[in-house]
Each structure stands twice: as C-alpha cells, then as structure tokens.
Amino acid sequence: MTIIDGKQTAEEYKALLKQEVNVLVAIGKRPPGLAILLIGNNGASETYVANKLKTCHDVGFNASLFRFENTVSESEILNCINELNFNSSIDGVIVQSPFPNHISPQKINEAIHPAKDVDGFHPMNAGRLQQNKPCYIAATPKGIMQLIEKYKIETQGKHCVVVGRSNIVGMPMSILLSRNSKPGNCTVTICHSKTVDLASYTKRADILIAAIGSPELITAAMVKEGAVVIDVGITRVADQATKSGYKLKGDIKYDEVANKCSFITPVPGGVGPMTIIGLLQNTLLAAKNAIYN
Ligand code: NAD
Prior knowledge:
Blueprint: E1 2-3, H1 6-26, E2 33-39, H2 43-59, E3 62-68, H3 74-85, E4 92-95, H4 105-111, H5 123-130, H6 139-150, E5 159-163, H7 170-178, E6 187-191, H8 198-202, E7 207-210, E8 228-231, E9 235-238, E10 246-249, H9 254-258, E11 263-264, H10 271-292
The structure holds nicotinamide-adenine-dinucleotide (NAD).
Nicotinamide-adenine-dinucleotide (NAD) binds at residues 140, 163-166, 168-170, 191-193, 195, 198, 211-214, 232-235, 271-272, 275.
C-alpha cells in the first residue's frame, strides 16, 4: 500500500509556482493577485484562509483578505466582488465557504467574473469543463487529478465511484475522470445521500473518491481489495486529548481501509494541500491571461 503524500507533492508544485512568479517579475510584470473574501469567523474557514494566504506569500503572489461580519448584507458582498472584477491588479477572486444562510452561494458564484473565477464555480467554467474546453477547474478535483498523475495511477477503463455530488468536488471530479483524456477514461458512478445501499457501489470501485463530510463513513467492508482510495472529507471531531480540542477526520476509516487498498490519501496531508495548489495554479493562469491578452 502506498500513502499518497499530498503535502510533499504540494511542496514540489509550490517550487514550480515560485519559479514562474520569479520569471514574471524578472521580465517586469507584476506577480499574480488573489483576493479572498471571508465572512464571519468560522474556525475551519479561518484556518483554510490562513493557509491560502501563507501559500500565496510563500510563492510570491499578492494576496488580499477582505473580512466581513456574519451580518454583512448580500449586496455588500456583491459590491465588493464587482469592484474586484474591475480591479486590474487582482487576477482571482474567491469567497470562502460556508456562507451565512442569508447569502446565496449561487449569486456569489455568478457575480465573480468568469475570467477571475479561480475557484472554477461560475456556471461558465463549470459548463466549459463539461464540454472539455479550457476553463478554471475547481481546485480540489484539479489537485486530485495531479496526485493521480504524480503517482502514475492507471485510470483508463477503471470503475471510479465518486461519493458526493457537490459542485465543488463530486460533480467536477466525476466529469474529469470520465473525460476522454489521461488521466481519465474511467467509467464513473456517482453516489449521494439518496443512494440506496452505498456499500454495493463502493465495493465495486477500482478508484473510490469520498467527498461526503461524514467522518469515517467508509469502512474496510465497503472497499474492494487493492482499490485506490482518495479521501476528500475533512471534519473537525471533538477530541479532548488534543490541544485544539478537536481532531481532523476524513470520510474513510483510515486505519482499517489502509490495510486493504493499493493507494490512500491521509487526512490531513492528502488532498487538502493540493487544493491550495490547484487554486494558485488557476490564479497564475488568470494572471498570465490578464497580462498577455
Ligand atoms: P457538500 O455537503 O456540498 O456535499 C456532500 C455530498 O455528500 C452531497 O452531494 C451528499 O449527497 C453526499 N452525501 C451526504 N451524506 C451521504 C451519505 N450518507 N451517503 C452518500 N453520500 C452522502 O460537501 P462538499 O463541499 O462536497 O465537501 C465534502 C467534504 O469534503 C467535506 O468534509 C469538506 O470539508 C471536504 N472538502 C475538503 C477539501 C479539501 O481540500 N480536502 C475541499 C473541499 C471540501
């Protein structure tokens, strides 16, 4: 069994991003600029945003954080996005989820100009992904595809089961793996909360991708011997033995599944670090498009 080291892989990609920024700056161009909007003070969101800002700083991007109270109005957020859409030093705009209930994720996603939609959530980018046209690919599936490539995991003709159908992970993941490309060419089954007898599907997966948000839902009995197992889930589970008072858990029961599969991503240190890389790669691409077009 091979543990897929997302942390190490992300470090390698970070070095490449840094090199590209150095080249841009050396030829007199500006570094890529990313704007992050953060609403409220959800602990997990604070951590994700801090990691994104740190990685931007490490590779030489300009990153700006726009903080809002939980009570901020939807129109205030939309106005901020609109200003950023017209700001020529900003290449990418993202709004950290989750949002308060009075703010519509759909309105937010559609307000970000598709050319600055480095999360790849705008319908324009999601639609272009489906049609296999150049687009910004949602960062988590993009990162997972790079892990699959790096670890030379064969996907052609394999049966991939994606558990979860969100626009952020499950849906784009299933499209990427079913495309006629390398990696790709899988036969994909999508499972979700209304799937009856989930185990009957997961047991038939050569490649199992869990993006559910339900800690340790997938047990060894639900996994085929020798499967490739990618765990996207991250949930904070209370644990008084730790300093923070919680532990991060994936959707996979790691200790028992690890004994049965061929490849597995740990949580933390698997998919998470590559999500940030996917986001920064999209931002670099947006910057190059803005600078050279
Ligand atoms: P979501 O809540 O939008 O979607 C969850 C999906 O799981 C839904 O499609 C739902 O139908 C399905 N589901 C729920 N219960 C199920 C069940 N019992 N059986 C089968 N399917 C079930 O969540 P999301 O945004 O897609 O995120 C999923 C998980 O991945 C979360 O834990 C999230 O924190 C994590 N995540 C991690 C990263 C990363 O970088 N590692 C990035 C994004 C999301």
